[in-house]
């Protein structure tokens, strides 16, 4: 029986390993983590992350061939294949601060593997890492190897949150990069066999190590670039009377461009797009390619511009002041169907409104008050560094913020409503009831273009949608 161990029981490690266990009943999969709280949650009925379909998969395999444990040494030493899916945040200090990836967690994982291994291992990079990381990992492992043979593979993950299980069941592609030596090719084949249990052969791509590492950064940069492109056009739509939904539809009808990922928004969020582009920018700088670095930096700049443009629109529409006014924020997660708030545009929008002395009342169906308090109290890039994880109530952090468990409560007596996540339930709210409970004139700022602006205007709202005529 092949044994797999995965270091890192997060948004990637947990769902990915659960699906491998489901699809490969003959493989034993153990997910380990240094966080006891996370492992306890994986072993409970309240999983540490919200992801549609995940509960069912975990329930079916847990205790059969899927295990969660804090005993890193035991499971690393017993495994044939070790996935490393630890966090790779942006560095907050020192060389490359604000851009480069912080590989502290990765290096400590590699050192742990070197310390406890007693037999040959295939070590798989699952985390998103800078190009050439495999070389550094190889050095750490081989210099401490005690005669053990390690093969390093790059197998980046392309799942998106909210659709992780679907994406894992039916991936567009699985990418495996390895050394072009007989041992390297054997290792690639061994991992390919795991995925071949459910992924069609023609969707399993094999490349050299550096291509696999770079493809992940490039894919995220291309995806984020599409959003910044449509968001840049949304600003021009507002200035000219064009409608960004119509423009995006017309543009996307060109089969060379395609219709997906062209929804204008308040800005992209999530733990990876910004982090991975900044990482790409840093790698370009380090390789003496300032023009390429500038090109990609612009994707992040337009995203920041879009978020501040949104805040400016709220304040300027409300007679240039929101001081003392209640603003309801509907949605705090970075996208629907997840409770994840990492780099969510809601943080920047709320901080912007609070900076203008607004009173902010927040509702999100999946995000807790503690989480919102932590997010609003944190500095840029601190969120992915575990040391900062003390809970803090938002009321203690900032008296201007309240968190409610109901959209109607959040909007009661409010002067304006900002929709910042495209939760389906926000489309179905009783906006007449909301209007009746609000101060007048009542404003709606739809950062996700989810409501029917025409209908809301009929009720009496003043509505601002991204990239649409007023
Ligand atoms: P996460 O923060 O949710 O999980 C990482 C886990 O690793 C944490 O639970 C942490 O405690 C654990 N960890 C840290 N150091 C460890 C060590 N030495 N040994 C064992 N466990 C350790 O992060 P994530 O969202 O799962 O992302 C992990 C990686 O995958 C990142 O590189 C990210 O860029 C990449 N990625 C993420 C997504 C996504 O949707 N979140 C998608 C594709 C790729
Ligand atoms: C993204 C990629 O889609 C995954 O392929 C990748 O594996 C992952 O990053 C990663 O490396 O972490 P994720 O961040 O989970 O996945 O979610 P997306 O669906 O890509 O959305 C990212 C952000 O862009 C969200 O804030 C979303 O609301 C926004 N978005 C997305 C738009 O504003 N417009 C769109 O048309 C699409």
Automatic annotation (TrEMBL):
Its EC number is 1.1.1.22. NAD(+) binds at residues 8-13, 33, 38, 86-90, 127-128, 161, 272-275, 342. It comes from Iris pallida (Sweet iris). One of its GO terms (cellular component) is nucleus. Residues 328-453 form the UDP-glucose/GDP-mannose dehydrogenase C-terminal domain. It holds the Pfam family UDPG_MGDP_dh_N. InterPro entries: 6-PGluconate_DH-like_C_sf (IPR008927), NAD(P)-bd_dom_sf (IPR036291), UDP-Glc/GDP-Man (IPR017476), UDP-Glc/GDP-Man_DH_C (IPR014027), UDP-Glc/GDP-Man_DH_C_sf (IPR036220), UDP-Glc/GDP-Man_DH_dimer (IPR014026), UDP-Glc/GDP-Man_DH_N (IPR001732), UDPglc_DH_euk (IPR028356). Belongs to the UDP-glucose/GDP-mannose dehydrogenase family. This is UDP-glucose 6-dehydrogenase. One of its GO terms (molecular function) is UDP-glucose 6-dehydrogenase activity. It catalyses: UDP-alpha-D-glucose + 2 NAD(+) + H2O = UDP-alpha-D-glucuronate + 2 NADH + 3 H(+). One of its GO terms (biological process) is UDP-glucuronate biosynthetic process. The active site is at 272 (nucleophile).
């Amino acid at each position: 029986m092949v044994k797999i161990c995965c270091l890192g029981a997060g948004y990637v490690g947990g769902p990915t390993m659960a699906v491998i266990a489901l699809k490969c009943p003959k493989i034993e999969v153990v997910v380990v983590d240094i966080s006891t709280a996370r492992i306890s949650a994986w072993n409970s009925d309240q999983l540490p992350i919200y992801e549609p379909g995940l509960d069912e998969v975990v329930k079916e395999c847990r205790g059969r061939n899927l295990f969660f444990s804090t005993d890193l040494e035991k499971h690393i030493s017993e495994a044939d294949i070790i996935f490393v899916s630890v966090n790779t945040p942006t560095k907050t200090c020192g060389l490359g601060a604000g851009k480069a990836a912080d590989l502290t967690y990765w290096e400590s994982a590699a050192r742990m593997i070197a310390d406890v291994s007693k037999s040959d291992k295939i070590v798989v990079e699952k985390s998103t890492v800078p190009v050439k990381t495999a070389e550094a990992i190889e050095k750490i492992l081989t210099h401490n190897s005690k005669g053990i043979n390690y093969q390093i593979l790059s197998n980046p993950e392309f799942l998106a949150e909210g659709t992780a299980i679907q994406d894992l069941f039916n991936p567009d592609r699985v990418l495996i990069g390895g050394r072009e030596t007989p041992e390297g090719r054997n290792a690639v084949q061994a991992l390919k066999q795991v995925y071949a249990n459910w992924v069609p052969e023609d969707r399993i791509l094999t490349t050299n190590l550096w291509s696999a590492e770079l493809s992940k950064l490039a894919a995220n940069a291309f995806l984020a670039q599409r959003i910044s492109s449509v968001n840049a056009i949304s600003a021009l739509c507002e200035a000219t009377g064009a409608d960004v939904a119509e423009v995006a539809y017309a543009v996307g009808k060109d089969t060379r461009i395609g219709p997906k990922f062209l929804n204008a928004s308040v800005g992209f969020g999530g733990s990876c797009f910004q982090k991975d582009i900044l990482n790409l920018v840093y790698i370009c700088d380090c390789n003496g390619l300032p023009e390429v670095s500038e090109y990609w930096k612009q994707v992040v700049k337009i995203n920041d511009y879009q978020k501040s443009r949104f805040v400016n629109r709220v304040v300027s529409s409300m007679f240039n002041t929101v001081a003392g006014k209640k603003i309801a924020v509907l949605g705090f997660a970075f996208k629907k169907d997840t409770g994840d708030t990492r780099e969510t545009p809601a943080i920047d929008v709320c901080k912007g409104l609070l900076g203008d002395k607004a009173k902010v009342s927040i509702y999100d169906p999946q995000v807790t008050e503690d989480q919102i308090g932590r997010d609003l109290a944190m500095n840029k890039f601190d969120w992915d560094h575990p040391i900062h994880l003390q809970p803090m109530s938002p009321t203690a952090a900032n008296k201007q913020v309240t968190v409610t468990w109901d959209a109607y409560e959040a909007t009661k007596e409010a002067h304006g409503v900002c929709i910042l996540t495209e939760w389906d339930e926000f489309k179905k709210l009783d906006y007449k009831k909301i209007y009746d409970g609000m101060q007048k004139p009542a404003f709606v700022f739809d950062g996700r273009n989810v409501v029917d602006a025409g209908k809301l205007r009929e009720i009496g709202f003043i509505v601002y949608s991204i990239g649409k005529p007023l």
